[in-house]
Amino acid sequence: MRTLLPALLVACGLVAGSSAQTISGTVRDTDCSPIPGATVVVQGGSQPRGVISREGGVFVLRDLDARTYSLRAAIGGFYVAELQGVTPAPGGSSPLVVTLPVEEISLQDMIESEQERLPKNTPRRILVQDQECHPIAGAAVEILGGKAWKASTDTDGVVRTPSIRGAKYDVWIRADGYSPAVLRSARLPFRYQSDLTVSLRRGSAERVDVFTPWSRQDSSMNWPGSPAEADIRIVAMGDSTTAGTPAFKSPKESPPRGSGDEQSQYAYWLMKAHADWDVINQGVNAQRSDVIAARFDEDVIAKKPDVVVIIAGVNDVYQGRPAQHVKDQLAVMYRKARAAGIKVVAGTIIPYNTATADQNARMHDVNAWIRAQAEAGIVTFVDTRAAVAAPGDPDKLASSPDGLHPDTAGYRKMADAIEPAIKKLLR
C-alpha cells in the first residue's frame, strides 16, 4: 500500500476573487529542485481537474468554480502530497510551493505530460536517475513494439528517443543494482513539454516497477489533451460466435455492458486471464460478413485498439452465399485494420452441427484462405474451428446448448486458442 505523507506546502495569502479563479504553483523535491512531469489534481468543483507540472515544476489550473479544493500531487519515486482547503486566487496571484519527499518503496507512476503539438521528428529525452535525483549512467532503455530500439543513458543519465511512427509501445528501463521499470502501452513519439524523468529504486531486479499512463479511476478527469489508456485494448469483432450466443448478449446488442452469462463469450476468458487487457465485445448475432465489414470503421477503427480479433462468415454460408463473398469482406477488414496500424488475429469459421456437406466445404474453403493470408504475413492465424470441434469430427461442435453455438466451455477454448496469438502480437 502506498504511504501518504502530508504535503510540505507554502501558501501565501490565498484570496478568492471575482475574476477567473486559478490555483498555480511549483512542485519541488526536498532539495528544492523543481519536478516537471508531476500530476497535480484538484477536486471540489463541478468535476476533478488535473494538469502536469511543466519545466521548472510549474503548474496552473484555471477557470475554477468552487471556493476551496483538495489538491493532490504525485510522481514516481516520491511520496504523494495531499492538501485540503486550497483556495483559488484571481489570476493565480498567490502561488503554492508543493514539496514531494523522496519515497523509499512504491510502484512507479507514469506521468504523461500535456499532449501539445511539437514539430515532427523532434527528439525527446528520457532522464534516468535514482531516488536522490542522481543520474544513472549506462541504464538500458529499450522500446518494444512495431520497431524495436535500444540505447544506453549517457553520463548525465540521459537518452534521446528516436523518431518513431505514432503507435503504442512498451518501454523498458534497466540498470544494474536497481529494480527495472516498464512503461506499458506508451504513445510514441513522446510529446512531453519537458523531459520524462524516471526514478529507479535500488534493490532486487525481481520486482518490476510498472508505469501506467493513467489509472482507471482518473479516466473521468478533465485532463488537457487526450491521455493514453493504461490497458491493452482489444476489439472482438464478429457475429454470434463472438457475441456469446445463446447465453450472452454482447454490449453491442444489449448496451451498455451486455446481458446474460458473461462467461459465454471468449472476451470474458481473455480478460480473466489478463487483467490489463480490455477486450471490447463487438459481436452481433446473425450478422453476415458484409454487415460486419460495414460497421468496421465505427466499431473497430474508432476504438483505436492494439489488436482486433475477426471471426466472420458462418451466416453467409448458412444463407447460401459463396465462399468468395466471405473472402472479399474479410480482405476489406484486414486491409482497413492494417492501414490503421491495428494488428489482426484472424479466427476460422467454427462448425455448427446441422451444416450440410456443401456448407462445410465452403467453410473449409474460407478457412484455408484465412490460413494462406497468415502465411503471407497479412494476419495472425488462429484455428478457432479446431478449438471447439468434437474430437475426430471437425464439422461438429464438441459441446453445444443448441447445436449452433459453443457452450461456456467452448467459448473458453476459443479464448485459450486466441490468447497466444494476441500475446505474440503484443510482444
Commentary on this structure:
It is a single chain. This protein has 427 residues and is of the alpha/beta class. The chain folds into three domains: 4-100, Immunoglobulin-like; 125-214, Immunoglobulin-like, CATH 2.60.40.1120; 232-426, Rossmann fold. 20% of the residues lie in helices and 30% in strands. Strands 1-8-7-4-5 form a five-stranded mixed sheet, with no helix packed on it. A hairpin with a 2-residue loop joins β26 (389-390) and β27. α2 crosses α9 and α6 packs parallel to α7. The longest helix has 19 residues, at 357-375. The protein starts with a strand and ends with a helix. Residues 1-19, 104-123, 188-194 and 212-230 have low confidence and may be disordered.
Short description:
By secondary structure, this protein is α/β, with parallel strands linked by helices.
CATH level 4 superfamily of the largest domain: SGNH hydrolase
**So what's the CATH class of the largest domain?**
Alpha Beta
- Low-confidence regions: 1-19, 104-123, 188-194, 212-230
Number of strands: 27
How much helicity do the residues have? 10-25%
Major sheet: 5 strands, mixed
- The SS-based structural class is alpha/beta
Q: What number of domains?
A: 3
Architecture of the largest domain, CATH level 2?
3-Layer(aba) Sandwich
Instruction: Write out the strand line-up for the largest beta sheet, numbering strands in chain order.
Output: 1-8-7-4-5
Mean pLDDT: 78
How would the global form be characterised? Answer: elongated
End-to-end separation in angstroms reads 30 Å
Number of helices: 9
